Amino acid sequence: MPAQYSGDEGQSRYERMLQGYLSGELRIVNAGLPRSQKTLAVLLREEYPHLLCHDGSTQLIKRKELDYLASMLDAGEQEALLLPMLIELGGDQSQATILCAGEVEEKVISTILNMPLRQGQPLSRTSALPPTPTTPTTPTTPTLPPASTTSPTPPAPTTSPSPPAPTTLSMPPTSTTSTGLPISTRERETITLYRPQLALLRKTLKTTTQYLFPQKNRPPQTPH
Amino acid sequence: MPQLIRVRPTKIELVKLKRRLSLALRVQKIVKDRLSILTMEFLQTARETVESKRNLLDEMSQMYRALSIAAGYHGYVALEKELLASKADVAVTTGLRNVAGVRIPALEFKEPAKSMRGYSLLETSSCVDHGAQLARKSLKAIVELAELQRGLELLGMEINRTKRITNALEYIIIPSLQATIHYLAMKFEERDREEKGRLKRVKVLLARKE
Question: What is residue A120's three-state secondary structure?
């Protein structure tokens, strides 16, 4: 064997170890995800509210947070709210997406953030800006069906033949709240939040929200 | 200058290296996301810890003030006798919560079902009541602060670890993989060119023979 390959065995062992380590990193980040979500009503009935995670551990849910959530929802909504709410981190580091099955999550988040979530806007960062006041938004923006439907229907396309270029859109004063935070957008089954909003949400709901790291990179969201 | 990885210059090794590079890039992205989340949580926890500590100090000072007033009113001996009777276990629900792969303890102070104080209400004044109430609040704040401080430590350690991984990936692993892939690709191109030259030479020799 030539001298230059003398360290090949050791190298491959090192490389294998490195490979295993890197794969392990991917496992670690999603180890805390729950095996299944529970509804708020079920968790409220438990003496020690908890969830089973993928790695076999249990996650404690604080009763204080459950009581807080229960205070803002009625009985029917408590049955519909699945916990923990999953926060998916997208490709853009300034944004995070909350996966939601229904509109209860929207209500909870808008109450916590103290701001409305605008519906039916495309999710990309540039297109999250509202259209200019001259654009007739009502006819072109389709009304969303109830988000609780689980049928894999494609996103509703806009009837506008050519949407305006994102760079030409201006940010009117209505696009931010009184606190200066930009308004989040709500698309079918997802809610897009900016980092400061996420920090605010996590401060309030520490044990009832959970981060989800997608293993495959999602393609960047483009305007419809 | 990134260091080349010692590998056999074969196509199989090149494919393996490319796979390794794609895995490393994917891991780098996830680790960077994780680092930013951990930093956000760390800063949030640090802010809350400062707030909680201030809150605890306020409540403790109020409690000691109330206790000293009670001691002045009832006398130390009588107060100690009453407080001995009011000893009770503290119930704290403990568990774990997972923040981007970091297991942080979650503690929750359990409020007693009945507010049994233990001491005689007839023989004590409202000063003792007030002190007891503040003591309970302080206990709650202590539990909260314990959770936050432990979380802060764990998050800090994990941020250090994740930073090391990110740096290793960014400055050592990925550049060396890229350099090796580049080196192998150049080597294969060179080999192809040599092969082409050799074939031409053979062709000339065969033509001469004929």
Answer: coil
Residue B86 lies in a domain: yes
Q: Find the domain containing B70 and state its range.
A: 11-209
| Chain A residues close to B106, C-beta within 8 Å | 60, 62, 206-207
**Residue B170 within a domain:** yes
What is the total count of domains within chain B? 1
- Interval A170-183: pLDDT, tens: 333 334 444 455 55
A7 with B6: Cβ contact below 8 A? yes
Q: What residue has token string 């360290």?
A: A7
CATH code, domain with B15: 1.10.287.3240
Helix (H, G, I), strand (E, B) or coil at B98: strand
Between positions 145 and 174 of B, the ones with CB within 8 A of A are: 165, 173
The gap between the terminal CA atoms of chain B, to the nearest Å, is 52
Q: Does A8 touch chain B (CB under 8 A)?
A: yes
- Please tell me whether the overall predicted TM-score, pTM, comes out greater than 0.80 for this model: no
Contacts of A97 in chain B (CB under 8 A): none
Within its chain, how far is the Cα of B178 from the centroid? 31
Task: Convert the pLDDT of each residue in B30-64 to its tens digit.
Answer: 888 889 889 999 999 999 999 999 999 999 999 89
Is there a domain that residue B18 lies in? yes
The answer to whether position B5 is within a domain reads no
